[in-house]
Amino acid sequence: MRRPSVIRAALTVIVLTTTFAVGTGPASAAPPGTNSQAAEAAACASLYGVPVAGNPDPLSPCQWDMRAIGATASGSYAVNRGRGARVGDIDTGIDLTNSDIMPNVDLAASCDFIYADTPTSNPAEQVTRGDCSNKSALQDLAGHGTHTAGTIAAPINGMGTSGVAPEATIVVLKAGTEQGFFFTQSVVDALMYAGNQHLDVVNMSFFADPWLFNCRNDQEHRHEPPHYRRDQPGLPPGRRGEPAGQQQLHRPADRAAGRRRGDSHRCPEPAVVVLHLRQRH
Do residue 236 and residue 134 come from a single domain? Predict the structure, then answer.
């Protein structure tokens, strides 16, 4: 009997692990009690049993995650450092004062997708939809976007840490609010912008809840819609027995119908999004 086919999606996934946001400029003073760069490097070298000197960057001894995936001077850095790659980082923005990471950020191409009607957003990060001119709105008010950008492409420059691809270019796509929430409209707009910009890959280290803050009759943490279809092994995602090419967006009910009925906070069944991926035998 033939084994079920393996479904592969043409996506690149960057796995992010803990790192440090360091090398910030004068506008981002370190909190009281923060270790000096040299003291932190020495502590990490002792903890992980690695040399404190001879590393790509001063805080490389702390980057156990990079060593785990071979992103080291003798590993991937000796083969390919990501030069020419443009990475869209859909996250909470970037610390515009971070002198370690900003040299690898394309600020001109970066864009904010937080709007006046985005729940939990700060007015300082709100822009008019489709207008990418307000670069100050990209400022990371949550901290997570600066973390992911550094993990992806902090350059080897003699300060702080180095990223997986230290010569790649980051395009900041801000879709997360100050409180760390990512709403569907912002995420969709960021993805469409990334496609229009022909970026090589997009990193998304978050989850988006399209119902939280929108539907009072929905549980706060809905992990899967009630009509989610668990397909038989080997079949493309979709309705069982449905011919290829007919697997589209199935909507058990129109979410907008709730608003037409006059109750803007009660929504019917959520849409079930079905992706059709090519199979490779």
Answer: no
Report how far residue 75's alpha carbon sits from residue 161's, in angstroms, rounded to the nearest whole number. Answer: 16
Q: What is the mean pLDDT of residues 205-234?
A: 53
Q: Which domain holds residue 237?
A: 210-281
CA 142/CA 168 separation, integer angstroms: 23
- Is the distance from CB of 156 to CB of 162 less than 8 angstroms? yes
Q: Is the distance from CB of 227 to CB of 265 less than 8 angstroms?
A: no
Establish if 62 belongs to a structural domain: no
pLDDT tens digits for range 2-53:
332 222 222 233 333 333 333 334 445 778 988 999 999 999 999 999 999 9
User: Which tokens in the block code for residue 156?
Assistant: 């080897």
Per-residue confidence band for 151, with pLDDT thresholds at 50, 70 and 90: very high
Locate 123 and state its tokens.
Answer: 């007015």
The total number of structural domains that make up the chain: 2
pLDDT at 229 over 50: no
**Better pLDDT: 34 or 221:** 34
Contacting residues for 12 by C-beta, under 8 A, at least 6 apart: 200, 201
Q: How far is C-alpha 41 from the geometric centre of its chain's CA atoms?
A: 27
Beta strands in the chain (DSSP E): 6-7, 86-91, 111-112, 169-174, 201-204, 279-280
Chain centroid offset of residue 268 CA = 29
My answer on whether 185 and 263 are in the same domain is no
Instruction: Indicate the residue type of 115.
Output: Y
